[in-house]
UniProtKB/TrEMBL annotation:
Gene, per the UniProt record: trpS
Binding of L-tryptophan, residues: D132
Subcellular location(s) per record: Cytoplasm
Binding locations of ATP: K9, P10, S11, G144, D145, D146, I183, K192, M193, S194, K195, S196
Protein name: Tryptophan--tRNA ligase
EC category name: ligase
Keyword vocabulary terms for this entry: Aminoacyl-tRNA synthetase, ATP-binding, Cytoplasm, Ligase, Nucleotide-binding, Protein biosynthesis
Free-text function comment from the UniProt entry: Catalyzes the attachment of tryptophan to tRNA(Trp).
InterPro entries given in the database record: aa-tRNA-synth_Ic (IPR002305), Rossmann-like_a/b/a_fold (IPR014729), Trp-tRNA-ligase (IPR002306), Trp-tRNA-ligase_bac-type (IPR024109), Trp-tRNA_synthetase (IPR050203)
SUPFAM superfamilies, per database record: Nucleotidylyl transferase
Length: 328
């Protein structure tokens, strides 16, 4: 059975980067895989979070999963901190992870750069990510470009554990989509579009009104050539907008280039905005119904119970393999 695990951190308001890299594929994935979609709230707190906002954002991310078409009858939707096995397996795997390999993680280097007080949890974040994946014996993990290194570490830890103790874990394969795996900031195509970027014009939020979407995309940086061509080397700004267009329209890059041949950036950006708005509108409608509803609480309770069954089974096997004194 092919099994997928994926999640989006409740570390800020969801933007079209997370949509392109993750959310927009969730609904179709549930047809081909047994899917676990979770809200990684324990990951979010590796950097400071406002507690009230974190609470609300965790609900929001879960509501977006359902609003974007994930069916709780087909996929398991849950919040990471509702399943205690994540924190437990994290600890077991930390005993197997090497300081040096964690120190090589580029995301840690980026996120800790220039900061005085960095939590030790930010450093060990990839081990928790490995625990998330290995608990469910996920065979496939959809990841954006930036997460490839963490998935490699997951495979290394799984192999190390299986070799030293017993074959408890499955080795996951990455699914890196050709389109949408790196959506960059609208203000600066050298930086990933990110929830924690304080510049609100750097991204389109999933909850932005149509006028805000139009304004932000109209302001997105471009070059002065005036040609809609996909070329990350020479035209990163325009390539980024083409990438977003491809995610939201479903068209391939060549078709987009043909469609906008001889047309200026103004027209391209207007049509891009309409494509984004058309996809977001139904998601926003369903999101508003769900976000503070009992229906969502019910989905998450059922999801946590289902997730815990699989997770606890793996955790018990890992504990036994390590020689911990298990009872029951
Ligand atoms: N800009 C992006 N382009 C493509 N994929 C992206 N992802 C996130 N941003 C982009 C992918 O979405 C999945 C969920 O990501 P996440 O929210 O759990 O973590 P993140 O990558 O750290 O996201 P942010 O927005 O940058 O959050 P902060 O600022 O809080 O760290 C992942 O598969 C990710 O690759």
């Amino acid at each position: 059975m092919k099994r997928v695990l994926s999640g989006i951190k409740p570390s800020g308001e969801l933007n079209i980067g997370g949509y392109g890299g993750a959310l927009h594929r969730f609904a179709s994935m549930q047809e081909d895989y047994e899917c676990y979609f979770f809200v990684p709230d324990l990951h979010a707190i590796t950097v400071p979070q406002d507690p009230r906002r974190l609470f609300q954002r965790s609900k929001e991310i879960a509501a977006y999963y359902v609003a974007a078409g994930v069916d709780p009858a087909k996929a398991t939707i849950f919040v990471q901190s509702h399943v205690a096995a994540h924190a437990e397996l994290n600890w077991l795997l930390e005993t197997q992870a090497h300081f040096g390999e964690l120190a090589r993680m580029t995301q840690f280097k980026d996120k800790s750069h220039g900061k005085d007080a960095v939590s030790s949890a930010l450093f060990t974040y990839p081990v928790l990510m490995a625990a998330d994946i290995l608990l469910y014996r996920a065979t496939h993990v959809p990841v954006g470009d930036d997460q490839k290194q963490h998935l490699e570490l997951t495979r290394d830890l799984a192999e190390r554990f299986n070799h030293r103790f017993a074959p408890v874990f499955a080795l996951p394969e990455p699914i890196i989509p050709e389109i949408g795996s790196r959506i960059m900031g609208l203000d600066d195509p050298s930086k990933k579009m990110s929830k924690s970027n304080p510049n609100r014009n750097s991204c389109v939020l999933l909850q932005d009104d149509p006028d805000v979407v139009r304004r932000k995309l109209a302001k997105a940086v471009t070059d002065s050539e005036g040609v809609v061509r996909y070329d990350w080397e020479r035209k990163p700004e325009v390539s980024n907008l083409i990438e977003i267009y491809a995610v939201f329209s479903g068209d391939d890059v060549a078709a987009i280039e043909r469609r906008f041949e001889g047309v200026g950036y103004g027209q391209f950006k207007r049509e891009l905005a309409e494509a984004v708005i058309a996809k977001l509108e139904p998601i926003q409608r369903r999101f508003r119904e769900l976000v503070d509803s009992e229906e969502l609480v019910g989905i998450l309770k059922d999801g946590a119970a289902k997730a815990a069954e699989t997770a606890n089974d793996t955790l018990l096997k890992a504990k036994r393999a390590l020689g911990l004194f298990t009872i029951g």
